[in-house]
Amino acid sequence: MNEQTFSALADSNRLNIIELLLKHPQSVGEIAEKLELNQPQTSKHLKVLNEAGLVEVQPEANRRIYKLKAESFQEIDRWLDSYRKMWEARMDRLDDYLDVIQGKKPLN
């Protein structure tokens, strides 16, 4: 995972595109219509997402169908997992501390 991935996800329109593509692959026109964006603007956002490796495109007749690239999101999930573990450990310690100050648990 790299800075380009985060940069691509930093834009609200691109996040909205990701949300749409979670449901199923869609064409540029479908995405533009649902998000009420013009087609060139939508294409630019899709290009950024494609260059970041978050989506892939499949030509279908005269349309381009975009879908999420699962591997990229699995990589993001692995990266986030280290932070999840850290926060879970901190929350566990906070729970223990709150139990001690509320008298529910003896001080170690």
How would you characterize this protein structure?
The chain has a three-stranded antiparallel sheet. It has helices spanning 3-9, 12-23, 28-35, 39-51, 70-101; strands spanning 26-27, 55-60, 63-68. The two termini are 41 Å apart. It has 108 residues and is α+β, with helices and mostly antiparallel strands. The model has no long low-confidence stretch (mean pLDDT 93). It contains five helices and three strands. A hairpin with a 2-residue loop joins strand 2 (55-60) and strand 3 (63-68).
> H/E order of the elements?
HHEHHEEH
How many DSSP helices?
5
- Record the strand order, biggest sheet: 1-3-2
Q: Specify the structural class.
A: alpha+beta
Major sheet attributes: 3 strands, antiparallel
Overall pLDDT score:
93
pLDDT below 50 for ≥5 consecutive residues: which ranges?
Answer: none
Gross geometry: elongated
CA-based gyration radius: 21 Å
Strand content is 5-15%
